[in-house]
Amino acid sequence: MLRWALIFFVISLVAGALGFTGIAAGAGRIAKILFGLFLVIAIVVVLIAISIGQAVF
Questions:
Q1: Domain containing residue 47
Q2: C-alpha closest to that of 24 among 36, 9, 39
Q3: What is the pLDDT of residue 35?
Q4: What's the predicted TM-score (pTM) here?
Q5: For the chain, counts of helices (H) and of strands (E)
Q6: Is residue 32 part of a domain?
Q7: In terms of Cα–Cα distance, which of 37, 35, 57 is closest to 46?
Q8: Does 7 fall in a domain?
Q9: Cα–Cα dist 39/21, whole Å
Q10: Domain count within the chain
Q11: What SS3 class is residue 51?
Q12: More confident residue, 1 or 14
């Protein structure tokens, strides 16, 4: 999921540099959503691992 967020971020940067502002805004929005979802899932996994007693680090 983080890979897809990075891909959409790169698409957003390239589209913005080429002047396609609509595509850049849409790709940026999708990248933000995917990155936020990744963070939520990562935090949940860490909290579950801590509650079970297994060290993640």
A1: 2-52
A2: 9
A3: 93
A4: 0.76
A5: 2, 0
A6: yes
A7: 57
A8: yes
A9: 27
A10: 1
A11: helix
A12: 14
- pLDDT tens digit sequence for 18-46: 999 999 999 999 999 999 999 999 999 98
Assigned domain for 42 exists: yes
Cβ atoms within 10 Å, residue 38 = 15
**Residue 55, SS3?**
coil
Q: Quick one: pLDDT at residue 2?
A: 84
CA dist., res. 50 & res. 54, Å (int): 6
Separation of alpha carbons 12 and 52, rounded Å: 40
The closest alpha carbon to 31, from 55, 15, 14, 7, belongs to 7
Token pair, residue 42, equals: 């990562």
> In 3-state terms, what secondary structure has residue 44?
helix
